[in-house]
Amino acid sequence: MAVEVAKLGFHMNSFSHPPPPPPALTPFISPRKNHLSFFPKSFINKSSFGGRRRRNYLFSRRLSASLLEEQQQELSFTEPETKLIEALIGIQGRGRSASPQQLNDVEQAVKILEGQEGVFDPTNSSLIEGRWQLIFTTRPGTASPIQRTFVGVDTFSVFQEVYLRTDDPRVSNIVRFSDAIGELKVEAAASVKDGKRILFRFDKAAFSFSFLPFKVPYPVPFRLLGDEAKGWLDTTYLSQSGNIRISRGNKGTTFVLQKETEPRQRLLSAISTGVGITEAIDKLVTLNQSVAKEPELQVGKWQLIWSSQQETDSWFENAANGLMGTQIVKENGRLKFLVDILLGFRFSIDGNFVKSGDKTYDVTMDDAAILAGPFGVPMEMRSKFNLELLYTDAKIMITRGYNRILFVHLRVDNSETK
């Protein structure tokens, strides 16, 4: 049965023998990071987690000279580019799990940028050269199984390398599984048709595993595919800074790529891969310290996506202390923690917060119940702790709460405040 192949912005029509799948992946919850990770089964040593001592991550807020320099040299974007990045923050799977509203916001931001004056004739500019990270892609019905498998997994990093000013012009698509595993690189010979369009023909691919001293060929019969191995990629917007690129493939897919990501994007990427999370938090908070206005808890519904310590108490105590589920910040100092249990049952606890300092709040949670639809069974529970608001904006909130644990929340809906 013919299987269609597509690599990021490059699509091939079909070939007779499907390529082998990547190494078998096993999901597990990391006890230190509280998020879903994926590794080959052979890489998981269950005994290595059993005796690992639990600990809190210490969070440093000291400014260093290097961070001050980075703050001064931090990436700058035009207003339309900023709107695109804001629309992309929080979208998982590079668009695979986007809601209709999120997709609409990205589509509108892309259209605005495509109507702006970016770099003229981008394929003739040196700014298009280099390694680009794939941030977002649409999902038309023509997307191949391989594209859906690799591109939609946040734990993988996906890149595109463009080198047109060499004796051997090439464009390569790279799926980086992890530092411990390695990567898959698919290469295409490239040529420039005009100021926007790159023509390509796939000609080789290989796995580079970190634990092997040689490359493993990716068995695709490129030479036998003829014209079916060909395609094109249009660059519809290239920023004047050379940091943002919007491209459209020959099968109608839209791609948003960046050379450098901003601090919030780097934090979300670190949480997805499980590498460098506290460092990314430290950098984001430190770079934000120059803002004169003190942060305030923002009304809205916030989903917990990471905490610096695994749940150590009973399930209900963890839920009452905000170590799982969603946090709903309401007006007039009201707060709710909400956790899905199963089969429509939910745990809920309400309370209040009172500002006690520039960035700190005293939190008391004391109205708990098990909910099933419109009905609820009250529970006797009470939790008190100090909450320090380290960073917040319209999309991300970073706090230090119960037992001085760090929390990262992502806004999922700012309308549910009842």
Automatic annotation (TrEMBL):
It comes from the Eukaryota. Its main location: plastid. Keywords: Plastid, Transit peptide. GO terms for cellular component: plastid. Residues 81-257 form the Plastid lipid-associated protein/fibrillin conserved domain. Pfam families: PAP_fibrillin (PF04755). It is found in: Plastid. PANTHER family: PLASTID-LIPID-ASSOCIATED PROTEIN 4, CHLOROPLASTIC-RELATED (PTHR31906). This is Plastid lipid-associated protein/fibrillin conserved domain. It comes from Macleaya cordata (Five-seeded plume-poppy).
